Amino acid sequence: MKIGVVPDLRSSAGGIYQYSITILNALRESTSDGSLDQFVILTEDRSHPLLQEFREPTWTVDVPQPHSYKKTAKRVLTRFGLDALTLEIMERFQSGSNKLDVDRVQSRPHDKQWLQSLGIELMLYPTPQARSFEIGLPYMMAIHDLQHRLQPEFPEVSANGEWNYREYLFRNGARHALMVLTDSEVGKEDVLNFYGQYGVQPDRVKVLPFLPASYLPSEVSADEQRRVRRTYNLPERFLFYPAQFWPHKNHARIIRALGLVKEQKIEPPIVFCGSSEGSIRRAALKEVMKIASENRVTKQILNLGYVPDDDMAGLYAAAAALVMPTFFGPTNIPVLEAWRFGCPVITSDIRGIREQVGNAAVLVDPKSVEAIADGIQKIWTDVQFSLALAANGRHRLSSYTPADFRNRLVNIIEEAKAYGIC
After folding, report:
1. Before 128, cis peptide (omega within 30)?
2. What would the pLDDT profile of 93-131 be if each residue is shown by its tens digit?
3. How many Å apart are CA 93 and CA 421, to the nearest integer?
4. I need a surface site. Which of 208, 322, 398, 410 has the fewest CB within 10 A?
5. Where are the beta strands (DSSP E) in 89-138?
6. pLDDT (tens digit per residue) in 397-409
């Protein structure tokens, strides 16, 4: 069977970029064993270095949906990885006029014809995309979270028509899919709770847990740590949080927690990295820096902005702890990456995350500045505790391997093929 894969290869996309890379690498390894399937990678970024490893005839690379592009929007579309119809739908939801009924699926007949002309019979979307159900070919799609349903108070999942667009995307994506991929049993439970009433069956929702980003090395040498320290002029010890400045990432409470810890004569520096582009993220960063000034901890903050993939492993390995009191789950990739490099973890005591980390993290109430401060103080001052926590993380990570991921993914595809043929 010929299968189309639509990854998100924008490194600025964060977790969905990492998940896309993991999916592609797993499929590449599976086809090296003589798989009879053929794959077509559909991406605008045909120059991505990873794609040079995918060889014909099993693998080909093409540009997706050429019939959907509008010349006037091409620059915007290329930047954000959207095609013209998706952009039009989002704009209509955001405008408040001529609002789309979320149950009325838009049609892409030209795209379906084009994909069929390539011989594609089944599609795989590592990231949620409306084109999955709008095209009309059988497909599998990942749903990483349903936070617009769970926590709509955060503007990044609800403001300016975002809630309506997400509901259109996830409701239809789930109910029309051959298979829905979730990262955890909690994620599966959410899909069934919200969309079971629309016909989503439990046997069509498959759990495929996250792995650490596959482009990261297994170990980091002392020389590499020194190189990264020199590159960013890092302090000897520091806390680390790689996250875009969305409000749900909770940077503001981390800063207030540093203010409380400072009252105990403890002043750990913290290194942030991640995008602050867009009105919501710019406002969040501005608020973070205002709070830092009010709490007299501005000098403890080092904001690196976007960091290349090649430097991330060194940052994790050099950090005294990952501090990630996010409000969103159900699971998160940075926790796994921290475990890989022996970095202790502070994260949120919320549904999904607590099941992910078990005894391998300090769990804190993300709403409580005091709880975050206590977690920081504990890890910063108790070296033996930190070492034990890091060991627990490595042990927990070892229970799920790339081979497990690959085998699960292959089995899901085989099951989807059987459904599709029927």
Report:
1. no
2. 555 544 568 888 888 888 899 999 999 999 999 999 999
3. 35
4. 398
5. 122-125
6. 988 888 999 999 9
Whether the CB-CB separation of 187 and 149 falls below 8 Å is answered with no
Angle between helices 309-318 and 333-340 (to 10 degrees): 70
Class of residue 180 by CB neighbours under 10 A (exposed 0-12, middle 13-18, buried 19+): buried
Dihedral (C-alpha) 273, 275, 281, 286: value to the nearest 10 degrees? Answer: 50
Show the tokens assigned to 406: 């690959």
* Per-residue model confidence (pLDDT) at position 275: 81
**Most distant CA pair in the chain: distance in Å?**
68
Domain with CATH 3.40.50.2000 in the chain: 2-211+401-421, 222-397
Beta carbons within 8 Å of 387's beta carbon, 6+ residues apart: none
Measure the CA–CA gap between 49 and 91, rounded to whole angstroms: 33
Say if residue 43's pLDDT is above 90. Answer: no
Token pair of 369 as six digits: 């500045």
> Contact 192/202 with Cβ under 8 angstroms?
yes
- CATH architecture of residue range(s) 2-211+401-421: 3-Layer(aba) Sandwich (3.40)
The whole-angstrom separation of Cα 254 and Cα 396 is: 26
| Closest CA relative to residue 235, chosen from 306, 338, 304, 310 | 304
81 backbone φψ class: left, alpha, beta (φ>0; ψ -120 to 50):
left
pTM of the model: 0.86
Per the document, the length of the chain is 422
Nearest by Cα to 84 from 93, 72, 96: 72
CB 174 within 8 A of CB 105: no
Tokens at 310, concatenated: 């090649």
Phi, psi of 61 (to 5 degrees): -125, 135
Write out pLDDT tens, residues 162-172. 899 999 999 99
- 182-216 pLDDT, tens digit per residue, is 999 999 999 999 999 999 999 999 999 988 876 77
- DSSP class of residue 100 equals P
**How high is the pLDDT of residue 62?**
83
- Cβ contact 89:78 at 8 Å: no
Compute φ and ψ for 321, nearest 5 degrees: -170, 150
Please write the tens of the pLDDT for every residue from 261-313: 999 999 999 999 988 888 899 999 999 999 999 999 999 999 998 888 889 99
